Amino acid sequence: xxxxxxxxxxxxxxxxxxxxxxxxxxxxxxxxxxxxxxxxxxxxxxxxxxxxxxxxxxxxxxxxxxxxxxxxxxxxxxxxxxxxxxxxxxxxxxxxxxxxxxxxxxxxxxxxxxxxxxxxxxxxxxxxxxxxxxxxxxxxxxxxxxxxxxxxxxxxxxxxxxxxxxxxxxxxxxxxxxxxxxxxxxxxxxxxxxxxxxxxxxxxxxxxxxxxxxxxxxxxxxxxxxxxxxxxxxxxxxxxxxxxxxxxxxxxxxxxxxxxxxxxxxxxxxxxxxxxxxxxxxxxxxxxxxxxxxxxxxxxxxxxxxxxxxxxxxxxxxxxxxxxxxxxxxxxxxxxxxxxxxxxxxxxxxxxxx
Length: 354
What we know:
Number of helices: 9
Shape: globular
Helix content: 10-25%
Radius of gyration: 20 Å
Number of strands: 14
Structural class: alpha+beta
Distance between the termini: 30 Å
Order of helices and strands: EHEEEEEEEEEEEHHEHHHEHHH
Largest sheet: 6 strands, antiparallel
């Protein structure tokens, strides 16, 4: 059943306005580091760009729960330094060795941009975005301010190439900095209901591959446990929690700048999923006009759930995620609404807390 499109008016409390500003803007961004090359072909991704041949040592991966970006088709790669290992003692916040490089390619009918991250010698991360030439000959580094309305998405909106400040805002909301590359995301067993799920490609990195190579410094049993399917009452709930983990948990977690909101959408294995513990029946800081107690999630009632309102809005002060999209993710909105309406109907906040 599709969620209602009935418009609602919402007010933003001062505390939530501050939190939204932090999430949207992040810390002040320095200029693009001179260590970020001018051309994508100079970053080490390609052995032969014209032939599309990826460099030796660069490996592709496909996260189990992908991040929604207005329907963009994506490809992702990582290059770990020779002989280096990842500190994976925290199964979902891995710490990467100096020299680690990540790339993520965005396509809307053609390649539009590739985003680049590199772990610098001082432990910080270099962020850069590259815009592809129309003929696909190479991609040039975009100004640190990004580029608005770079191309059509096919969803009635245009795609923005992010500013460096936008990259920092999304990636620095949790300790690991890297999104979509952890035990759960690299699990071999995949969630069949995950919105926008992508089938792993031959040669993609998986958790077991990294463990077999000895590239993860952590407890193998704990890592395998973290990669097990999300514990949930129904398959639909599992998919909904996975979607919130990937698309919202980077900022809404217990360890980042927004921890004081006490809204944890990052999934961690526990007696009760953090999203249920911190959202079910809990009063939201965003409120409908004239109402003071609208819950983050109202069991059985997506119409009263602020989470649904935020996922279903692209009004700048309300939409979630605050960056990276101009179109509502209709598939995920329907999934989350149906989960709240059907799977959560028998539950109450008191029941969930037990």
